Amino acid sequence: MLAVRIVSGTAVPLDRSDVDTDQIIPSDWLKKVERTGFEKGLFSEWRDDRDFVLNDERYTGANILVAGPNFGTGSSREHAVWAIQQYGFEAVISPRFADIFANNCTKNGLVPVVVDPEFGRALLDAVIADPGLVITIDVERGTVEVPALGMETTFPMEESTRTRFLEGLDDIALTLRHDEAIAGYEARRPSWLPETSRI
Amino acid sequence: MGRTLAEKVWDNHVVASPPGEPDLLYIDLHLVHEVTSPQAFDGLRLSGRTVRRPDLTLATEDHNVPTSDVDLPIADPVSRTQVETLRRNCAEFGVPLYSMGDPRQGVVHIIGPELGVTQPGMTIVCGDSHTSTHGAFGALAFGIGTSEVEHVLATQTLPQKRPDTMAVTIEGELAPGVTPKDVILAVIGRIGTGGGIGSIIEYRGPVIEAMSMEGRMTVCNMSIEAGARAGLVAPDRTTFDYLAGRPGAPPGPDWDRAVEDWSALATDPDARFDREVVINGSEISPHVTWGTNPSQVTPIAGNVPDPDSMDDPVAAESARRALEYMGLEAGTPITEVAVDTVFIGSCTNGRIEDLRQVAAVAQGRKVAPGVRTLVVPGSAQVKAQAEAEGLDSILRTAGFDWREPGCSMCLAMNPDKLQPGERCASTSNRNFEGRQGRGGRTHLVSPAVAAASAIAGHFAAPADL
Question: For residues B433 and B444, what is the distance between their CA atoms, to the nearest angstrom?
Fold first, then answer.
């Protein structure tokens, strides 16, 4: 994955709670066997509504998605992250993310930014009021800033995750440094554990 | 201090704990299906890697497969390509695969347990959020994304941050007609869709102890709908009896040693959970969801709620949007809501016990005119067993449509879909907007309520018929 240090730009306000991954990318799109081409599927059912915020030209070119709480619930489909990224977003801000979705974000360089509910609400209102508002997310410092309004807060991130973002590291290569430990563990596993080749 | 079941299984699988990094966990079983794997196999090819342990990996075709005319090629060319891609990938990398038509094929979370490859104390992952199902055996089982699928294929391990522990205790005894599905819907209604985020839930208490393995699987299956990483139940005699004699179970001399190991996994009496929730099982009644997430749920005797009476503005707004999508008026009694379609199946409720409950309700009755019904067994084995017990003929006589195994209308990736505006009583796990077909309206219910609703033509419990 590519390294990510700073995400700065305008945002789209998605003022809804419990946005599940079936809404982010409906299941018809999961039939693709490629990893690209999901941008058209992003929120595709909601986009048929002309009033849906992604159809609002004032938000064209935004690279940050600001959403209500419980974003990315439901299915484990990583396609949801691919769709958000391929549409042009580099970070998502929400008071709470579903675990698997947040995990999938970190494997692809999409920054999941958890803010407290009051900050999240204020940020949504600010972006609704001013589509040109610039937000800056600093992964290294763990901060979200809106300089024009003097808003600033911090967001949590595991240090190991932060390192992966900043250095764009490949998880599999990192794990393979432990190849000996893996082989050692395998040698100690109980012999009765099931093998799929034997059933 | 003692340890919880989840902590014991976790500790038993730590390969390495690098400082400042998450634990590296060994994965005992990796289940694979056609939807979330193609990009992972591609990744392996691009980096010149192989599947480290094809003998700990098992693939099946479930999400896309049609439930009729299965002897013909899959009609949808995109679905067909995806299934064929899985076949090519499994052949190239040596992964065992149960294809359509194989007597062992079925929904990935149904076949693991029935083949006996899901066992207590194991770590199990799959690129599918309902992997939590396998937790019913006291396994630590959770859903992963496609990048993690590739990681497990390549290394048989996964770096994971240790989750919190949460106990959900169901006290008392269930009233007659109340099922495991009602228990988990009541739990989600109580703790919400985010209530379990960051946690592994352990289900405990007399109601869980009295449940069959099928029932425990239904409960653990929907842990993800409460946001939990995984859900599990301590293995006991019920677990061991279910496993004994299955193809993947430990062979003769190893069986006793395995049971001894499994018996030691239960949470220690002095272990502490980060959070505890207690629910009185005697007060649970059959449940029906009214909204577009599984926490928007009410007892079947209740009414569609009024968003204006909700204290939390976020919940009220979400309810307003949900009622508009669902085409429901606040205050309407749930039992007055008519259904067009009834779907019985999925990894939540597609097992033999579920089909027996449906047949018991359907026996000697008829599906209401105009109601479309699909009964989709969770696996080829479930289908064969149901047919051996004569359940299919009871259901056919009552007017139910008896289908081939697969995920089917749970997520509508195959031809089984709702049309816009159609209302479905569904035994599946998600009532999200468009989940069962664009514009479709899904209400989650137990198999017994689904069957009774098919016969009544509106939401009904078997006792109402």
Answer: 13
Domain boundaries along the sequence of chain A: 6-169
In terms of CA atoms, which chain A residue is nearest residue B127? A76
**Do the chains contact at A192 and B258, CB–CB below 8 Å?**
yes
From the CA of A147, how many Å to the nearest CA of chain B?
A: 28
ipTM of the complex: 0.93
Cα–Cα separations (whole angstroms), residue B213 to A28, B112, B169, B271: 33, 13, 17, 25
Do B64 and A186 make contact, defined as CB atoms within 8 angstroms? no
User: Are the Cβ atoms of B20 and A159 closer than 8 angstroms?
Assistant: yes
Of A31, A175, A198, the CB nearest to B79: A31
CB-based contacts of B439: which residues, under 8 Å, 6+ apart? B418, B419, B420, B421, B422
Do the Cβ atoms of A35 and B42 come within 8 Å?
yes
Give per-residue pLDDT as tens, B138-171: 999 999 999 999 999 999 999 999 999 999 999 9
Is A73 within 8 Å of A101 (Cβ atoms)?
A: yes
Which CATH homologous superfamily contains domain A6-169?
A: Aconitase, domain 4 (3.20.19.10)
Q: How many CB pairs under 8 A join A and B?
A: 206
- Chain-centroid distance, C-alpha B221: 4
Other Cβ atoms less than 10 A from the Cβ of B275: the count is 14
The strand ranges marked E within chain A are 6-9, 11-14, 64-67, 91-94, 111-114, 135-138, 143-146, 151-154
Global pTM value: 0.96
